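Good morning,

Both structures are done.
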Amino acid sequence: MDQATRQSSLMLDEPPRVATTARARGLTTTEWVICGVAALGFAFDLYEMLVMPIVLRPALSALGGLESESREFNRWVGLMFYAPAIAGGVFGLLGGYLTDLVGRRRLLVWSILLYAVSSFAASRATTLPQLLAFRCLTVVGVSVEYVAAIAWLAELFDDPKRRQSILAYTQSAGGLGGLMATGAYYLAVTYAEALPAIGGSHEAWRYVLLFGLLPAIPLIIVRPFLPESPAWLAARSRGRLRRPSIVEVFRPALRRTTIVTTVMFACVFGMASGVLLQTPRMVPGLPGVRDLTPRQIEQAVGSVQFVGELGVLAGRLLLAFLIVRITSQRRLARMFIVPGLVVIPLVYSFAATHSLGLLYVGIFATAVLINGPASLLWTYVPRMYPVHLRGTGEGVAQNVGTRMLGTLAAVLTTQLTSVMPGSTAATHLAYSAAIVAAMLYSIALAASFALREPSGEWLPD
């Protein structure tokens, strides 16, 4: 058999295995486009998740005439946060299944278009129910896109070292999402009157939501250049692409992986919703801040958010640097979880109640120690499931772990404030966050001991 025939046979019999010497070559133009599309999607995923806390108050005021902290205001705040999360969780499970059934690229493209179009529609909402419905669609798109993108990238770059590096570095672009949300709101507030009216008004929150339409524009342009996953295509062409099943990821061979990763996703993303995202509410109660003018207080809050977003980016980049140098997934997870178990409760029990300067350092460290393991889990999960269950397994871990369980940490943090010591609401919240952080990272550390190491560098067929 000549060399060309043998290579052709290999491509039909099994997913391609890139030679070790290929690691040194640079990315092709198409591969750069692939990475760019994925990175843009990850950045806007986080943008869409973080933009709502920024625009919620002015949107509720404009569409419902609701006064801040009124009972009706708080009811709509709860709906706007938790209804989209539940919708994302339920339909994200379906999205993982469809990723395995109809292909990674197709779901990736349609999910990005879904949250882009729904973001456009949300910017033109005229009632609160409309805004809620469009936000649910946006989070559904985000939930499906992340699962499809991870499976797609993992299977496109088959060389183990390159695959891990690309998964980690493209995900680090997600750290730009928070910076983009903050910057978009600043620009919208500053220049709203100079922009074309939306629905007959120049309300800044509408422009910030409209910004979520942007990823659809380059996607439409590069769509013809995006290949389907070769592993998925090869399995289908051989007739070996079994029908995906959510039940199968809980059968004995995969049950431990599914449960452990779901628990760890819930803990890590619970830290984000129950601790990190609660931090801006603590700033006005800090000594030296509560005596400032309202404008100065808002500036302090904004600066704390900005430092936190830098920490998000730093945590993901640190993971990208370490992941090709440390092979043990358990060890890599504990490099973030163990320090986090000590540092984060200290940040919220002391820095968040005593000093703005200390809180700057603390929120940066907290964001690093949360986002490192978050990125690690996303590079880990594709290595544990076969082709026909890769999207389904990711969908269960992400959507049950993050949307359905992780977001409940925000409820726990706010409920615990009623029994916390201290003289101000901000202090109660800080102590509550410290307890939730200690609890969640203790669970994550225990779960890490049950984390299976991948059986090899290659993705399972």
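Second structure follows.
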Amino acid sequence: MKKIYTLIAGFILFGSIAKAQDTLLFEDFELTKFYAHLDSVIVLPTNTTDTMWYSADLDQNADASGGNRSLGWFSARPFSKVDQYQTGYTDGQGNPDTNSVIAASSWSGNGDNGTPEDNWLITTNIKLGAHDTLFWKSAPVQTPRYLDGYEVKLSTTDNNDLSFSHLLFTAAEMTGTPVDGDTVYSHYTFSPSDAFIHGKDSTYIDIASTGAKAAHAGRLRPFSVPLDDFANQNVFIGFHHNSHDDNLISLDDIMVRGTQSNPNAGIAEHKLDMNLSVFPNPANINDNAQLNFELSSEMQVTMSINDITGKLIYSESKGSLTQGRHFAMINTSALAKGFYTIALQTKNGMNTTKLIVQ
């Protein structure tokens, strides 16, 4: 995803994407200049507008891993070999271009009843539009043994940790005593019990081989949350790592992308009916892209994909879907590299967006 800035600029040539969508924030943690704008602190500021990102270690728990890990968020290599290289990119000398993430450790030795981690990664101030969506990826270093959890929160006032009163997403952590060599999820307990549990659906993990310390390695999994409830507000988004003595969690490709309304542009305005977006975009070949959309009522939905010449590549009926937010996965390994139009047909008409496969 390192070249996304160039490719997004290239969208302007295609008009409809430039008018329909706007990237308000994007960070893939590849560039050293990002870390020049990352302030690592023990006490968070209380700024209402800020151009800095913050990594805050508010708990000051000691590192018990024996590896001299940073106590806040730090640059790291992805945990899964699947994520460790930028597909299709080289370093200029023909070698695969390495990927990087930002990670935080919870290995404190304090146990489940000790002081939990209180690590915050806080974005710059973001001015939202009318229909924006937060996208990101995350992966734990292992699961289900010592699975790390975290929260995604939002503040509409300032970037102090006490101001993040809006909970957008929760990933569960493992609790209780792990069993050596046991990778069966039903044998473990997780908290909160109703939160997302990474790898429980057998996706986005590297299946472990047998052994006393067997655990599945986490792959970067994409997530998205609509931000319509905070339309036209200035916000901060905080990723709160709050596990009790587990291991490592990582984040990548944090993006806020939206649809700007224009009452004088009929086609662009019609696109708002479904709040249609695709992520990641550009998408790597031999990967997946997630199409996100919203229905105002229950209706039949058909998805189709056309190449740059207009030729129909794929069509699928999604059946009758209920009112609300939905997503569909697009297997990019079935597509050649290039530009595509993704269309959703409903009783209200057709809504389209663009996808680049690289």
